[in-house]
Hints:
Layout: H1 13-16, H2 25-39, H3 45-58, H4 61-73, H5 75-83, H6 85-91, E1 102-106, E2 111-116, H7 125-128, H8 133-136, H9 138-146, H10 148-154, E3 164-169, E4 175-179, H11 191-195, H12 200-204
Parallel strand pairs: 1-4, 2-3
Amino acid sequence: MSHDHPLDHDHNRNHAQGGHSELSAVELRVRALESVLSAKGYVDAVALDLLIDTYQTKIGPRNGARVIARAWVDSRYRERLRRDATAAIAELGYGGRQGEHMIAVENTPQQHNLVVCTLCSCYPWPVLGLPPVWYKSAPYRSRVVREPRAVLAEFGVQLPAATAIRVWDSTAEVRYLVIPMRPGGTDTLDESELAALVTRDSMIGTALCHT
């Protein structure tokens, strides 16, 4: 796995920008199936595109970023999020399918949290949107449990040796949200400005938040 594209990270970028296709074999099969279903009238292509865009740009990581920003500025909310993430997330209007049973785990200087689904690709859609391709890939799912520090390094995350790494395995019953550490020097930023610093990957644990 290369440093530039760890675990197929952002492997569709060239395709999206008009370059050659780098779609995986699975994605090519999915697109072929979508084409067949659309041609037979079983799937409304416009409605499908709208659904995907909604999860990618509206229901997606922006929701989770708002949850994290609220936790950063409101200690009482952060405690509620840690105690009952499903209810705390619902306070901001987010919830539903794939997010019925949420657990929030908080990064600290002593412990870094990392989320995976070793069996398939269980993922909290209401707060993070569509799962990235690398999250569903076999290399990530198998390696992150065995060598999490090495996998993090491939994502550009270098942690102190003293920082423990805990891997959380999402299931059909429980899904996890990482509360990343708030970057230093952000005391003057408001909640919306803080939310802009939160990335999808930081809420999975494969990135840190920076100013």
